[in-house]
Amino acid sequence: MDDLLRTPLFTLHEELGAKMVPFAGYTMPVQYPLGVLKEHLHCRAEAGLFDVSHMGQVILRGADVATWLEHLLPQDVIGLGEGRQRYGFFTNGEGGIYDDLMFANRGDHMFLVVNASCKDDDVRRMKAALEPNISVELLDNRALLALQGPAAEAALATLNPAVADMRFMDVRTVELAGAECWVSRSGYTGEDGYEISVPNEAAEALARALLADTRVEPIGLGARDSLRLEAGLCLYGNDIDNGTTPVEAALTWGIQKVRRAGGAREGKFPGARAILAELADGPARKRVGLAPEGRAPMREGVELFASDTGGEPVGRVTSGAFGPTLGRPMAMGYVPAALSVEGTKLYGDVRGRRMPVQVAKLPFVPANFKR
Amino acid sequence: MKYTEEHEWIREEDGLYVVGITEHASEQLGDVVFVELPEEGSEVVKDEDICVIESVKAASDILAPLDGEIVEVNSAIVDDPGKINEDPLGDAWFFKLKVTDLSPMDDYMDEAAYKKFIG
Questions:
Q1: Which of A202, A266, B88, B94 sits at 20 to 30 Å (Cα–Cα) from A4?
Q2: What is the ipTM of this complex?
């Protein structure tokens, strides 16, 4: 435990009574005294503050940085306007996913937010591919907070009214609690809200200022997981990884036309051959939403079968939990394309028993973004 | 009232033995979202897994603390698993046992010993 890293909000987490757990090399709050269920519901009803400082914040700088970044992922980076952010994923040579990320055009540089567990590998790969033309800097001097929920706008606007004018996926430099913050109107809960990059030394004061608002409660990783699952969002390492392609993962909406077959900048990203072929022919298996019929959660690792007895597994659950807003269990997993149609009845092996589960539409809870 | 190292409590009531989980256990589990209880009338053996309890975090088994017959289960906690967090020592009992061998009761802890056990 001693070699775990601490975020700049560690002292505040302890003061708030958080239960801390090791996560991606950091000691992070999994829940606060409110508990996972109530934290989840509070975030959907009002606003929740998350410490996501463990995530990697990376600055890419240099001439034609957008063109260079397009070498590493299948997104339209060149077409991303200044002050805008986009979701993307680094692909490997076989079309698998090294990591998923947000990237933002901040004028003279590109700002990336990558997963904590992947950040060192991401930076190593980017340096190998982009230096010396592009400088790659993993920031260690900034924390990252997320403020999510229907009251997020009102709560953050009390610190600076300018944030109310931002739309979904806008990014802007904004002064908050006396510090220069890089704010994006985005998040990973399915709710409207913001992610705020703040200098380490100003992070605690900003968090305290936000928590002073009665609408804002601190939310741990436990509720973050159930919130993102209800929103149908992938967790890297569970739902996507080096062995899953974006087409299998149903992330093709994240591959813009200009990078697809017939587009002006078709292909020329790692794994393009596999991914473009799969886009044309369809994947052999697909990530789908799964709605267990009973009350028993089907968790990560549950094997899926086509019938209630016998046969080999046809797929596997990659994320599963109880959905507090949904009021019932929910899961995601991979199934053969032929069994990926909404309403298809499958069976999940829960403690040796085949329990019925239906292929369901994602997201489980509709998104509430301010477009 | 007696306590097991598996964080279950056992209370005698009109010749039957009522079983539930301790407050400490319910706090450790976090919000409970699913419970599966044994069938009424089933014969159980001490240390056999007879219930499943799932919280927002994970699944755990509940063991039969004594040999006997399940004479009644508390279906209210199946319909509303959150009761287990609200009132683990009262309303959220799990099942009632007609015990055939009471001798393990001597090995179980009293309240003072259990408090010491959980530190």
A1: A202
A2: 0.85
